[in-house]
Each structure stands twice: as structure tokens, then as C-alpha cells.
């Protein structure tokens, strides 16, 4: 249980920080695609004898930039992302079938298994999280500029293509980290909903990041605790809590607009 809370805290912090830029750059759909690519990668890892995390990292990192390039033009964005999602799901099912893994392995990949996470896995998650946070910290000023004022960033000479590629790789790492608790198919919960809710309460990027982390922590901590007491899937409780927070944000924003 201690390992679960340690891993959950790390994952919530990373998701809260990265999620702000995911929402600002309008990337929730792309995040969902990377989660499905992560599913294929985790299944491939089981097939070749790697850990699911190693396979997920390999697939999402290699695919992130390619997916970003394919979806760079609005006219073909949805079609490109949809086709890649379909291919990733198909590959994931194929690799699981070829690896002869039991149903519990598939369930863990899809929906997470944080309650049984080991100390070694906590260390792996922590190392990946530190890498992601260092990248975001190093790119913070240009990334904030480009995410919240893309036209101004272009005029100011920000290297948007390079910046987008580096951020996509950081996002791929974040997907692999977050999958350890909510699973590959529900990653977008932590990478989008806390940040989406935070924008209704915050008036600056810094406060938005702080609230996004707070909302992610609330969902993860309560989700793990309730899952432990009920023996129900932790991802279910995290999803419910984050959706509730999001709708509270919408309601608060609606009341503020009326007043």
C-alpha cells in the first residue's frame, strides 16, 4: 500500500504538470492515441520477454513524433489519429495472443495495477518522472509561450517544430508513467481532466499547474484508498473523482459567469 501511494503521488504530479500543456495545446485526442500505442507496446513487451513498461516506452517514444507529424495538419488530423489508434489496438491484441498471457496480464495493461506495484517499479516510475519534469522545467518559458500564444511564439522566432517534438517525447514518457496506475486505455483521465478542471479556477499558468497537480493528487489518493477498501479497480474511482471535479469546475464557472 505504501508503494501504491508513492507511485500514485509521483504519477499525479507528472500528470498534473504535463496535462496543463496537453490541454493548452489541444492534445487530448493525441494523448488517447498514445495510450493505445502504449497498450500495443506493453503487449509487445510481454511477447518478447520485456517488462510492459519497457515495451510501452519503446513504442510511445518512437511513435510520438511520427504521430505528431501526421496530425500536424488540421485537415487530416482526426483521420490520421483514428487510423493509428485502430492499428495500435489491433497490434496489442495480436501480441497478447501470441504471448499466451492470461487474462490478468491483459487487465493490468489496460486498467493498471498500482495496488500490487513493487518498490523496484516505484523507482522506475520515479526516474521517468524526474526525466519528464526536468525536460518541462528546461523548456518551461518557450513551451508556455508556444502553448498559450502560438502566433506570438511564431512571430518571436520560437522553434515550434523542435519544441513540439521534444514535448511529444516527454508526453510519451508521461503516458508510460501514468499507465502504471490507470492503465493504458485510461491514461487520458489523469493527463487531461485535472488540467481541464484547473482552468476554470486558475488565472495564470503557474496557478493552473498547481491546481492541476492538486486535483490529480486528490483523485489518485482517494482512488487508491477506496480501491483498497472495496477491492474494486482503482482506475474506476480515479475516473469518477476526476469527472466530478471537472463538472464542479464547469458549474463554478457557470455560476461566476451568471453573476
From TrEMBL:
It is found in: Cell membrane; Membrane. SUPFAM superfamilies: ABC transporter involved in vitamin B12 uptake, BtuC. It is a multi-pass membrane protein. Keywords: Membrane, Transmembrane, Transmembrane helix, Transport. The lineage of its organism: Bacteria, Bacillati, Bacillota, Bacilli, Lactobacillales. Pfam families: ABC-3. GO terms for biological process: transmembrane transport. One of its GO terms (cellular component) is ATP-binding cassette (ABC) transporter complex. It comes from Furfurilactobacillus siliginis. This is Zinc iron ABC transporter, permease protein. Belongs to the ABC-3 integral membrane protein family. It comes from the Bacteria. The chain crosses the membrane at residues 6-25, 37-59, 79-99, 120-140, 160-193, 205-229, 235-256.
